[in-house]
Amino acid sequence: MNTDDIEILTEWTEADVQDILARQFDAIALAERETTAVPHGVRTGQVYIVSRVPRPLGRPHQALPVLVVQNDTLNALEPTTMVVRLTTQPPARWRDYSVPLPGTETGLRKNTVALCHQILTIPQTDCERLMGTIGPPSIRKVAEMLRWCLGIP
Predict the structure, then answer these.
(1) Residue 69: what pLDDT?
(2) pLDDT given at position 92
(3) Are residues 75 and 68 in contact, defined by beta-carbon separation less than 8 angstroms?
(4) Of 3, 39, 80, 105, whose Cβ has the fewest other Cβ atoms within 10 Å?
(5) What's domain 46-150's architecture?
(6) 3-state secondary structure of 11
(7) Domains of the chain by residue range
(8) Nearest residue to 64 (alpha-carbon basis) of 38, 82, 83, 45
(9) Among 40, 49, 43, CA closest to 135
């Protein structure tokens, strides 16, 4: 900090400081109001059909099932959520990165696998149709595979 900075700081009055603090508190209050109004309210372990999942190589968007993997604290605070794609027919090269999920848990007609190496961040409002919710044992398996895919011990 040089002496010019010190002179500027010493020129502030108590009213200036109070005004700055009031504006900061107003901004914080506004941000809290905006984040508490969750657009959709998705929860960890829920399976949704999402119609606007980005596809590689410029392919058109396609409706796909996804599993919400982001924790519920962030789901309550953010308008987006992290998901992994689900598929019924993973290529053999993907089987090492996926977790099998029974259709009875996912709410889908067939058994699926969670592609834990394909993590996407999407708007919660894109989670259009809730199909089911996987149970704690399956959530733990998915969490373990996510840690492995991300290189987290």
Answers:
(1) 96
(2) 84
(3) yes
(4) 3
(5) Roll (2.30)
(6) coil
(7) 3-36, 46-150
(8) 83
(9) 43
